[in-house]
UniProtKB/TrEMBL annotation:
It comes from Chitinivorax tropicus. It holds the Pfam family Acetyltransf_6. This is FemAB-related protein (PEP-CTERM system-associated). Residues 162-295 form the BioF2-like acetyltransferase domain.
Length: 353
């Protein structure tokens, strides 16, 4: 675009509208190049969330003269048990506005607040990595863990703290092997077993199938076996030069053979060999076993800046397993037969977001 055309384009008004099916390719092209955007800003999340959970998504885009300057994926999660919220984005760790101009960011904020008020929600939530609304309510509960991947495999092994490295070598000693799966069958067995052990509801198998269908090669399942015995499995996302292990779980045997430790090492090794540069270990709640596990790998925790524009609510919601009022539920869930838990769980977890 020459200077005259660019100048004329900038005199055009910036408009905000809802993404249409015909916009998805352009939307994802913007996500790929916008510094603020993450894997969780991809257009495919609208299809996944609406089809897997039945929630209405509104993906807003700000454009000028046919060029996108900002995007904001939103979803209305409404239930009798957990309230009514407009979230960017449920079931995702990152969200909020991704924009290349301040005007686009401001216009998208304005549109989101108007939509939240029109839907009479309790609150509007942005799952941000960096705080952009100091006047909104905040929740200091989640952190994320990231580390650069060294181009040398052995250097990555040596970067793991000694005690954790010993656990990885234990898995190697037990002759564990990683396999890439084309479906989610073994993954779902390991994942559902793991979350049942923790006492939390499981997602439906259909949700994981949709992730594979919608995101294709950017959604990968790595399963760890000991001979013919299923040990552990992880579903990961790939975005630009990053790998993001997102859902993982292990069978009971995993503890005895360091299955989870080996699994994340095998994923890191494969990412190194593919030339990727960032291992995003994902978010964890402060004070949890998952938080401690990731710290043991030598990753530094970075607080996530989740922001809440209160609409009808007077306080930030507290829907998480660390809330003492959920402890009886967790203990009862752990005692429930896993087959029954896998039937009931998806009906509960779809409203948590």
């Amino acid at each position: 675009m020459n200077d005259m055309v660019r100048t004329n384009a900038m005199t055009e008004p910036l408009t905000v509208r809802e993404m249409a099916a015909a916009d998805r390719v352009r939307w994802d092209q913007f996500v790929e190049h916008c510094p603020d955007a993450t894997f969780f800003h991809k257009a495919g999340w609208q299809q996944v969330i609406e089809q897997a959970f039945g929630h209405r998504c509104t993906f807003l885009m700000a454009e000028r003269a046919g060029q996108i300057e900002g995007i904001l994926p939103l979803c209305n999660v409404k239930s009798l048990m957990f309230g009514n919220a407009l979230v960017s984005l449920p079931f995702c760790v990152y969200g909020g506005v991704a924009a290349i101009t301040d005007e686009a960011r401001a216009k998208l904020d304005e549109a989101a607040i108007k939509l939240a008020e029109a839907k009479s929600v309790d609150h509007l939530e942005y799952r941000c990595e960096i705080s952009t609304h100091p006047d909104w309510a905040h929740k200091e509960l989640y952190v994320t863990f990231r580390r650069d991947i060294d181009p040398d495999v052995e250097a990555n092994m040596l970067a793991i703290p000694r005690k954790q490295r010993a656990m990885v070598r234990k898995g190697i000693k037990f002759e564990l092997q990683g396999h890439l799966d084309d479906d989610v069958e073994r993954f779902f067995t390991a994942y559902s077993t793991s979350v049942h052990r923790l006492g939390t509801p499981v997602f439906s198998k259909r949700y994981f199938k949709l992730l594979q269908e919608v995101f294709g090669k950017d959604c990968e399942v790595l399963t760890i076996m000991q001979g013919e015995t299923l040990v552990a499995s992880v579903l990961s996302f790939y975005f630009r030069d990053q790998v993001l292990p997102y859902y993982g779980g292990g069978m009971d045997v995993a503890r005895d053979v360091a299955g989870n430790d080996f699994m994340y090492w095998d994923l890191l090794r494969r990412a190194c060999e593919r030339g990727l540069k960032v291992f995003d270990f994902g978010r964890s709640k402060l004070g949890t076993g998952a938080f401690d596990f990731k710290k043991n790998w030598g990753f530094e925790a970075t607080p996530l800046q989740y922001e809440y524009r209160l609409i009808k609510a007077t306080a930030v919601p507290d829907h998480n397993p660390l809330n003492p009022k959920y402890q009886m539920f967790i203990k009862a869930w752990q005692r429930m037969p896993i087959q029954l838990a896998n039937m009931i769980g998806p009906h509960i977890v779809k409203n948590l977001g």
